[in-house]
Design a protein that fits this description.
Strand order of the largest sheet: 1-2-3-4-5-6-7
Shape: elongated
Distance between the termini: 204 Å
Number of strands: 7
Oligomer: single chain
Structural class: mainly beta
Largest sheet: 7 strands, antiparallel
Order of helices and strands: EEEHEEEE
Helix content: under 10%
Length: 210
C-alpha cells in the first residue's frame, strides 16, 4: 500500500532553566516525653471505734498513812554502783606444834647384799643433847666375813648449839679408814662472820715390820 508523503511541522519547545539552591534543614525541637503522674490512691476511711460504756464502779478509798511511818525519799535517777563487799579470808587452822628434839636417840641400820641377804655392814646413828649442846654421830663399817675381805669404816661427828627444835652446827668432822689408808676432814662454821673453814688431811697407814 502506498501512502503519500506527509510532512509534519517541526517545532522546538524551549524549557525554562533549572535552578538548584542548597538551604539548611529546619531545626526540629526535641520533645521530652514526661511520664504521666500516677493516680493518687485515696486511703479507705477507717471505721470509727465503738466506745462501750462501762458501769460505774465504786472507787476504793486509799488507807490513810500513819504519821509515825516515815515516807521514803525518791531514789535518784542514776544511782552510783555500790563498792564490792570486802572478801574476808577464812582463818587457817593453826599449824600443829612440832615435838621437841629428844635428849638421846639411837638408830641402827643393817646392810645386806646378795640373794641370800648376807650381812656385810651396819650403820649406827646417835644423838645426845646436854646443856644446850648436841653431839650427832654416824658410824658406818663393814662387819663379819665382809670385813675380812674389805675393811672399811667411816665416822661422821657434828656438834654445836641445840634448841628445842633445831640444831646449829659449829664443828663437823669426818674420819674414813679404808684398808691401809686414813682420811680426815674438818669443817668449822663461823656464824657471826658468816664464814666456813674446811680442811682435809691424809694419813697413810704404815705397815708393821717384824
Amino acid at each position: 500500500m502506498w501512502l503519500p508523503e506527509v510532512h509534519l511541522p517541526q517545532h522546538e519547545l524551549k524549557l525554562p532553566p533549572l535552578i538548584a539552591k542548597l538551604e539548611p534543614l529546619p531545626k526540629l525541637s526535641a520533645k521530652v516525653a514526661h511520664p504521666k503522674p500516677k493516680p493518687k490512691v485515696r486511703p479507705k476511711p477507717q471505721p470509727e471505734p465503738v466506745v462501750q460504756s462501762l458501769p460505774d464502779l465504786p472507787i476504793a478509798q486509799s488507807a490513810p498513812v500513819p504519821a509515825s511511818v516515815p515516807v521514803a525519799a525518791s531514789a535518784p535517777a542514776a544511782a552510783e554502783p555500790e563498792p564490792p563487799a570486802p572478801v574476808i579470808a577464812e582463818a587457817l587452822p593453826p599449824e600443829p606444834q612440832r615435838p621437841p628434839l629428844p635428849k638421846h636417840a639411837r638408830l641402827q641400820f643393817n646392810v645386806y647384799q646378795g640373794q641370800g641377804n648376807f650381812k656385810v655392814g651396819e650403820s649406827v646413828h646417835t644423838l645426845d643433847i646436854e646443856d644446850g649442846y648436841y653431839t650427832l654421830k654416824a658410824n658406818v663399817q663393814t662387819t663379819g666375813l665382809a670385813s675380812l675381805v674389805k675393811s672399811y669404816r667411816m665416822v661422821q661427828t657434828s656438834g654445836g648449839e641445840a634448841t628445842q627444835h633445831t640444831l646449829k652446827p659449829e664443828v663437823f668432822t669426818e674420819e674414813i679408814t679404808d684398808g691401809s689408808s686414813k682420811k680426815m676432814n674438818r669443817t668449822e662454821f663461823d656464824w657471826a662472820n658468816k664464814k666456813i673453814t674446811a680442811a682435809k688431811h691424809h694419813y697413810p697407814r704404815r705397815r708393821r715390820t717384824s
